[in-house]
Prior knowledge:
homodimer; 495 residues; alpha+beta; Uridine Diphospho-n-acetylenolpyruvylglucosamine Reductase, domain 2; Uridine Diphospho-n-acetylenolpyruvylglucosamine Reductase, domain 3; Alpha-Beta Plaits; 4 domains; 5-stranded antiparallel β-sheet; 21% strand
Amino acid sequence: MALREPRLRAPASGPLAEVLTKDRHERITHALGKAYRDVVRGFRGEFDNPPDLVALPAAAADVEAVLAWCEEEEAAVVPYGGGTSVVGGVEPRLGDRPSVSLDLRGLDRILEVDQTSMAARIQAGATGPALEEGLREHGLTLRHFPQSFEFSTLGGWVATRAGGHFATLETHIDDLVESVRAVTPRGVWESRRLPGSGAGPSPDRLLLGSEGILGVITDAWVRVRPRPRQKVSCGVEFDGFLPGAAAVRALSQSGLHPANCRLLDALEAATTGAGDGESDLLVLGFESADHPVDALMDTALEIARDHGGRPGAVRGAAPGAGNRRPAADDSVSSWRSAFLAAPYLRDTFVACGVLSDTFETAITWDRFESFHAAAMEAVREKVAEVCGVAPNGPGSPRVTCRFTHVYPDGPAPYFTVLAPARRGGEVEQWDEIKAAASEAVIDGGGTITHHHAVGRDHRPWYDRQRPGPFAAALRSAKADLDPGAILNPGVLIDP
Amino acid sequence: MALREPRLRAPASGPLAEVLTKDRHERITHALGKAYRDVVRGFRGEFDNPPDLVALPAAAADVEAVLAWCEEEEAAVVPYGGGTSVVGGVEPRLGDRPSVSLDLRGLDRILEVDQTSMAARIQAGATGPALEEGLREHGLTLRHFPQSFEFSTLGGWVATRAGGHFATLETHIDDLVESVRAVTPRGVWESRRLPGSGAGPSPDRLLLGSEGILGVITDAWVRVRPRPRQKVSCGVEFDGFLPGAAAVRALSQSGLHPANCRLLDALEAATTGAGDGESDLLVLGFESADHPVDALMDTALEIARDHGGRPGAVRGAAPGAGNRRPAADDSVSSWRSAFLAAPYLRDTFVACGVLSDTFETAITWDRFESFHAAAMEAVREKVAEVCGVAPNGPGSPRVTCRFTHVYPDGPAPYFTVLAPARRGGEVEQWDEIKAAASEAVIDGGGTITHHHAVGRDHRPWYDRQRPGPFAAALRSAKADLDPGAILNPGVLIDP
């Protein structure tokens, strides 16, 4: 496999000699993220933008040293967590500028656990499974489960405002962060541990979503909780996605705060083995470490029924409650299994010549119906055109929608596209489809991303979305903290 | 009353002739906020820093014109909502620099109501009662009730991250804001209406708490809700503040999310007529527009009992539920009445020679006990020293504490000080006490403010609290948006 020679030479001695590597395998595995276009290019062996070096710090002090060295070398630094970006966030697409991929995997420890305040200080490179395993010893859990959970890291979640498990309330990692520590070229940015504050604009909220352009997150205090002991779930069928959406709107405005409230359209339900393709499916769940949640489920199912929903059996219950069965081979667990397997399946899709990727957004309820119709139509038409199939009928592209998270003022719709790919043209095909989807999202008033981040791929639409003065403020803030413009150039902002 | 002559001359013609005024009464009423030190100075007729002009825009375009004019005149602009700042946020303490107080009261309308998404677009100058009255016509409510509710405005709440009614979940206006529109010297900053987003750092979160230094908020979309139909409340007595705090910690970590969860120490309960001075009192409440909340209260009271709490009668209930009485002359309503009357009472205190003010913070649970002890002691000692009374025993200073808001990881303690004032020395007395309190708060790891904002009075401690690189980022962002440094100079940041 051809790989560009490194354009940077790591120091042969000194503390960075152990941190920086030009190892081929490291450079290749840090060259791409995990978008469809990344997987396709990986299959083809196309690693056109490998980092010149990979940094593997063992401590926060190493991160500071790497930044100082890169500033001197005028090299770009691309912070790297689990490498699961689906938006070009970790790919050093930087032309002639040499780059270092800064992988935080060496900073993977739980530093402190505060059982009283239910909080833990965890290093940025800890992956989902690693931090959950560490918290389990204390009877605690973060319960932040993005689809990338197995590989992605706390630092990556904070940098990208990752969406997690909870469909309501703590939908993003934002809501679980108590304080953040980051290394910037101008020193360490560390906020106080505070349960709440009103002292000026939140420093944490400026780091949350900063995608590596302001600093490298080294650790964070996060809010954890006891493991839930009470869990109930139920699948509810609807005749049509819009009636289902009306039920979800009522639920999201009820104050019941279900832990899970995912509406799958009929085709998506069928694709994931959770439905027969006739009915739309709402996957509803409540959980608590403290008290029974059966009554909440009953109230929620009443609301669902009022909107034409047909609940299946309620699964799971309080320990000792004998009248309800644990979760088994029902629609809810089918969906859960499919959700967890989907990223693996995509590799198979690529091998089989199936074009498969997603896009996601959020929109207020008043605009949802027209937004959904317009986005579905725009994408179906573009897929048909690009893939050479009929937009409707047998063999037509499969474009499906589900809600990943819901708010009192609107849902976060998540669209999946499956279509026949043209060998050798997959990246261009998807880029065309993705552009049409992004246009529909932005024209329709949505956000270019609810929880996948902006990266490099969403930039043109993100630039249209954000307020101009905010872009100016962010640009100036970055110029101040990162005068050498070394931190993840091209992401979020241009110098 | 002596008042400095205006150092600015409003244009005699053109659109600003109608907007800018040098009216004496306007200048006097815009010279001070509503802190104890402001009320005392107002009583004395000391208006040392009156704005030179007051701007009364009738539309957002007028705000733009005022900013442009002030930039030309090199005058400072102090955005003014209800003027209820207790931290020197609206006082033009600017030495030789002329200033304009920009009062948004002319922008007081509800512009749009979206019944589907439960959101409303409201102008910044709308006061609490005005916007609630407008929303009531639609069966809706914002339910954001800071103590200043009667006079303070939506724009002021957003600019200062005001704390409201809800003790859990939506504790700050931050949580109710869907999008914000602000006028900056570099153009209009307007975010999209989005129920949630992960597209870069949140633009809204940079305006929230910006206290007028980045732009003048002209309107915002806020999340509203149906008026609650189910409400229950209960007073729970504890023997000691710390056992009460332990119960509140369990409640805040239970996932029950009470609407009200205010713990008053015994002396505070007695002061507000809600208790006998022997017991500490927890004021607990649940509410819903959708479903009965009696079961939630029952679960909460179980938790309170487990921690030694003695619940009184549960008041209020679902319409039609006959077995529980509506709220009446109980401890809960006594406390509510005292809470609403307190700001008025302070004027009387000043007249009677009683020194009376408050400070507030937030701290994680693990540090709360030692933090509370240290803060109480530091302030009692300072009050005793400054006021010439014994720190303990009869006639000693009255320093009390309550929780205004609670989080899973910690409470927001709110301290009230009552002591004999020295005629003519009240401001200096309080400033000394406040400095001791602020030292204790910052040394103990708290935030200098949970919901009173930073203003000018909290600056020295805020500067110690915030991360250095964040201060640099904020300074650069402000310099970019406000190159003439006209917007509320001295608040949050120096040029």
